[in-house]
Amino acid sequence: MVRATAVLAGLVMLTGCTQTVDGTAAKPGSGDVPRNNDSQRKYPNLLKECDVLTEDILAETVGADPLDIQSTFVGAVCRWQAANPAGLVDITRFWFEQGSLDNERKTAEQLGYQIENRSIAGIESFMMRPDDPNGACGVASDAVGVVGWWVNPQSPGIDACSMAVKLMELTLATRA
Amino acid sequence: MFPVLAACSDAGPASPEVPTTEVPSQGITHGPFFPQCGGVSDEEMTEQTQVVGLVNTAQTSVGCQWLSGGSILGPHFSFTWFRGSPIGRERKTMELSRTSVEDISIEGHDGFIGINEDLATGVVNLCEVGIQFDDDFIEWSISFAQEPFPDACDVAVELTRQSIVNAT
Which residue of A has its CA nearest to B135? Predict the structure, then answer.
């Protein structure tokens, strides 16, 4: 359905003089766009939103049975929950096509997270860790806007950061 | 609806010829800062939704999710903060998947409110409110599982109002 949405957006663009309606107007030049074609060529895995990685791969990465994962929210932010034998693990993915790594870093700082800059698959990125007893960990990377992953275990003893990094490495793979 | 790249001349200020380069953050204006979970506590969530045993399972830089007993088998509540993401795309997603989507204005900020009705009972069991702040938007999603439950849109609107008030 998300992919269908992208197609619809493209159709609207082609109509040229369609009236903007309903109070959701964005600034000129900030709308959806053709530049997505470039990004699609550059990162074929990026634009499939919640399907960018299959649920099998998500589950495997967080140590869960491929059958024990379910989606809870879809769109530019996607959420899942998977069952690791050590406890439930929530997974969040975000992709803000008009966002930036700098703005994400600034936000993470304002939220009081511990931040560590690093490179993932050669892409400028940073890790972020809230003060969470279960070791929640997020990662954001500079990729046609900004893309990010969070792994939130519901119990301690799960290496959320390495799981988040692995998910990002898979996302930034330049081959579909 | 998506704004169109502006071939129309009478739509207010002339749309500049913005090149669609690979620098996506150019010309982007971000909205205010929303504290963790939109500034809404677990206690407030219980109070508003009247669901006991909620667990905040996904506190992240993009929002929070509350599930009954921490499990997806039950109601879903979430706050999400999109930074540099078109609200029109989210609205279109809703228009394609929900019973209805309408305009709404809360605390002077515009956006959408969408509902889903239980096909069998006609009861609104899901309500989502999205409110725009320049090139950002926030969304509260309130999805109930088992009756009785409070009016989902009353809950969504009130939590949205609180988040807007909590923004800095």
Answer: A26
ipTM over 0.90: no
Distance from first CA to last CA of chain B, Å, rounded? 28
Query: Cβ–Cβ of B132/A81 closer than 8 Å?
Result: no
Would you say residue B68 lies in a domain?
A: yes
> pTM value?
0.79
Are B56 and A134 a contacting pair, CB within 8 Å?
no
Chain B closest-CA separation from residue A141 CA (Å) = 14
Please state at what angle helix B152-166 crosses helix B42-49, rounded to 10 degrees.
150
Tokens of B85: 């993401």
Q: Does A128 touch chain B (CB under 8 A)?
A: yes
What gap in Å lies between CA A35 and CA A32, rounded to an integer?
A: 8
CATH number at residue B131: 3.40.1000
Beta bridge partners of A90: A81, A152
Over the stretch B70-94, which tens digit does the pLDDT of each residue have? 999 899 999 999 999 999 888 888 8
Confirm whether B25 is domain-assigned. no
Instruction: Residue B68: give the domain boundaries.
Output: 37-166
Q: Residue A167 belongs to what domain range?
A: 3-172
Q: Which amino acid is at B73?
A: L
| B35 prior amide bond cis, ω within 30 | no
What's the structural domain count of chain B? 1
Q: Please tell me if residue B72 touches chain A, with a CB cutoff of 8 Å.
A: yes
pLDDT tens digit string along A29-69?
333 433 334 444 554 444 457 887 889 999 999 999 998 99
Sign of CA dihedral A38, A40, A41, A46: positive
CA-based nearest residue to A99, from A60, A148, A64: A148
